[in-house]
Amino acid sequence: MELSDRARAAGDAIEPVTSFFLSLRAMDGRPDVVDLTFGDPHEMPLPALVDAIRANLEPRSEDWFAYKTSLAPAQDAVAAGLRAELGLDFAAADITMTQGAFGAIALAFRLVADVGDEVVVPEPGWFYAPMLRAADMVPVRASLAEGTFDLDVEAVARAITPRTRIVVVNSPANPTGRVYGRQRLAELAMVLDEASARHGRRIWLLSDEPYRRIRFDGVGFTSPAELYPWTLVDYSYGKVLLAPGQRLGYLALSPLIPAAVRDELRDAILPLQLALGWGFPDALMQYAVPALETVSIDVAALQGRRDRAVGVLRDAGYVLTVPEGTFYLWGEAPGGDAVAFTAALAERGVHVLPGTVFGRPQHFRISLTATSDMLERALPVLREVGARVG
To answer: pTM above 0.85?
Structure first.
C-alpha cells in the first residue's frame, strides 16, 4: 500500500460515514424516497440568500474575483453580530473567515495543537476524530451523560491527561440537540483551569457552535467563550441558511484571551490558513456576509416538525431525546440494532441515519430539514417498522 499512515487512519475513523454516504447514492433522484439523513435542503433556497449572492455577482472592480483572505466587511459584520449575541467585545481582528465550520475546526486544531497531542471530543458527537487523525493528533472520547446526553464534566475530567491540548464542546449538540447550561459550562471551565495548572500546560477549549441560532422553546444559549478565556469559537452559516454547499464560516478568538496571546494567534492564523490550502470562503460568499447575518431558516417551522415527530413517535413507543436546538431528532432504535432498524426503514423508502455513524449502534438520528409532506409520509412507516422490529 502506498497510502500514508494518516490517510489510512483518517479513512478508518470516518469509514461508517463514508459507507453510509455512498449507500445513499442509490436513491438519488427518486421521488418516492423520503430522505431524513443529513441536514440538506429539500425546498428551494431562502430568497434572501439568493438575493445576497445576486447582489454581489456583478463585479465592481477588476479584482472582484481575485485571491481573497478574510475580507474586512465580513469580519466587521461577524464581530458586530457576536457582540450583540454573546455580549463579548469581539473585534474584527478576532475573526477569520473560513470554508464552513469544517475549515474553522481544522484551522483551530492546527493553531494550538501539535502532532501527538490529545483532543477530548464528545461521544456521541460530530466527526472530529477523522480530522484529528489526518492531522496526526489523538482523539480521546468523553461520553455525554447517559440518558440525558447532557455535558458530563466528570467524564471530560477523566479523559484529560498531560497530553491533552484541546477539549471540544458542541452546543447545541449534533446529534442529540442538547443545549448545555451555563452552570455546567462553568464547572467545565473550572476543571480545565485546574488541569492546565496541574499539568503545566494550557488546555484550550474549542466551542463548536454552528447551530447556535437554531434553538427551540425560548431556550437560551451560553458560549464557553463567556466563561473560559482560552476559547476558540467556530461557526457555519450553512446551518442557519440551510445551504451547506455554500461553504461559509468563521473561527473567532475569545476577546477574553490575554492580549499578548491573542496577538500571537492573530499573527499566526493567516500564514497557517495559507499553508493549509488557502482555506478562505469564495469572494461572493464573503461579500454577502453583511446581508446574511440576519437571514435564517424558519425555526418555528422546524420546531413544529419536531413537535409533530416527537408526539407521533413517543405514542408509538419510541424513546427520544427532545432536541432543544439543531434540526435533528435523536432516539433509541427499536430492537436495539440501529443498522437493522434503518435497513428495515430503507426497504420502505424511508432513510434515517444510524447511530453507528456517531459510535452509538443502538441509536438513530432523523433530520427535520425534510419538508412537512416528507415527514408525514415517513411517520406511518416509522410507526409500523418500529412496532415490527421492537
So the answer is: yes
